[in-house]
Write a structure and sequence with these properties.
By secondary structure, this protein is an alpha+beta fold. Among the domains are: about 20-90, no CATH class; about 100-170, K homology (KH) domain (GMP Synthetase, Chain A, domain 3, 2-Layer Sandwich), CATH 3.30.300.20; about 175-235, no CATH class; about 240-295, SH3 type barrels (Roll), CATH 2.30.30. About 35% of the residues lie in helices and about 20% in strands. The protein has a 5-stranded mixed beta barrel. Strands 9-10-11-12 form a 4-stranded antiparallel beta sheet, covered by helices on one side. A 3-stranded mixed beta sheet has the order 6-7-8, sandwiched between helices. The longest helix is centred in the last third of the chain and has 29 residues, at about 315-345. It is elongated. It starts with 19 loop residues before the first strand and ends in an 8-residue tail after the last helix.
């Protein structure tokens, strides 16, 4: 589990330098040791440290003021109980340590066989030998309390070392074994996460995740620790989302909540009889809830009242008025033609002469010949002849 020292490029006072150093062991296990002798150490150096019985070898993970902050975070007191660093590990120390580590895998297999023979309800996950080959720590997980006193005797006589059984949780077991998560990155518990908090299914409900155990569970078989990473942000955003405990009542029917986008503040509803989803913002949902509490129902999810539908005839009234106008003009023209020419004249050939007109012209010419300027009564006779009806006019 690598750590970046962001204070490494800063010059700190040598007399006030914090003397406690963080040391890393197998599978990311860390502990604090005091550098009582002013040994020049660098990150990654192998050092020999004090153990309960004998000594052990670890690697420098962090030093300086960051260690002080880390101890305050983990609530570790800076007292005499902190063990000391002996020296920087030599080549012989590292060679012996490699020989001891080669015993770990065979010892793990043999210990599992003994557990199987004794029918103990425990799962042995890892073994760690001390660098001086005097002690071995067996890490196991179990759902219930296990009586392993007889197992310790068998393992001690088999491996000729002092045996310690240490129970760990499933999350710690996954952190020790390591692996790759569904996100494509190395497991958080095996890289940087050391404080395991309780994860509840409510974290998935707040984030609108499907309660599918196969998707919400990590490699440890428990809920993923990353469900807690953004939980506070979701809880803060949910304060602006209304609680819809019952379907929304509208004149169109009951609309049930299907989905909520917390950060965009959009909620999707659907009617029972329809498959379509209607997206509503939070303000509209609050308006509908207020109407329902007053015993009122909006027309639909989008509108409080339905719009009055304008008939198609009124929409095309302008076109109809124009059509009527042109039709009236055509009728007036036909009427004027009929008045001027009569019913039969409209069908006559313009080159054909009317016999009535010819008779009228002949009568006028005859009257002019019979006119005598010396006869004073002739004018009256002409007027009488004009007023007399023409027998040929009616033909």
């Amino acid at each position: 589990m690598n750590v970046f020292d962001w204070l490494s490029n800063m010059d700190m006072p040598s007399q006030d330098r914090f003397e406690v150093t963080e040391i890393r062991f197998k599978n990311g296990r860390k502990d604090f040791y005091r550098n009582s002798d002013p040994i020049a150490l660098h990150t990654g150096d192998a050092v020999v440290v004090e153990a309960m019985t004998g000594h052990h070898i670890g690697y420098v993970s962090m030093q300086g003021e960051l260690v002080r902050l880390q101890m305050q975070k983990k609530k570790v007191a800076n007292d005499d109980e902190i063990k000391k660093i002996y020296r920087v590990a030599h080549t012989k120390d590292l060679e012996k340590f490699e020989e001891v580590k080669n015993r770990e895998l065979p010892s793990l297999y043999h210990a599992r066989e003994f557990i199987r023979k004794m029918n103990l309800g425990m799962k042995l996950s890892d073994v760690e030998f001390q660098a001086d080959n005097t002690k071995a720590v067996f890490y196991y997980s179990a759902d219930e309390r296990v009586d392993f006193r007889e197992l310790i005797k068998v393992l001690a006589s088999e491996f000729k070392v002092r045996v310690e059984m240490r129970q760990i949780s499933l999350r710690q077991e996954a952190g020790r074994l390591g692996g790759i998560g569904v996100c494509g990155r190395e497991l958080c518990c095996s890289t940087w996460l050391s404080d395991f908090k309780n994860v509840a299914t409510s974290a998935a409900r707040y984030q609108n995740l499907s309660l599918n155990p196969s998707k919400l569970s990590g490699q440890c078989g428990r809920l993923k620790c990353c469900l807690n990473y953004e939980l506070e942000t979701y809880v803060e955003a949910l304060k602006f989302i209304p609680e819809v405990e019952a379907p929304l009542l509208t004149e169109k029917g009951e609309a049930r909540l299907q989905k909520t986008d917390i950060f965009r503040k959009i909620m999707w509803f659907a009617y029972k009889e329809e498959n379509n989803w209607y997206a509503l913002n939070v303000d509209r949902v609050n308006e509908i809830l207020a109407l329902n509490r007053e015993g009122k129902k909006p027309a639909s999810l989008e509108l409080d009242q339905e719009e009055v539908k304008i008939p198609i005839a009124t929409l095309n009234s302008d076109l109809e008025s124009l059509d009527k106008k042109f039709q009236n003009k055509g009728r007036n023209k036909n009427r004027n033609k009929n008045r001027r020419g009569g019913d039969n004249r409209g069908n006559q050939n313009p080159n054909q002469k009317n016999p009535n007109d010819q008779n009228r012209n002949q009568n006028q010419n005859q009257n002019r010949k019979n006119q005598n300027p010396n006869n004073p009564n002739q004018g009256n006779q002409n007027r009488d002849n004009q007023n007399r009806p023409n027998p040929n006019r009616g033909k």
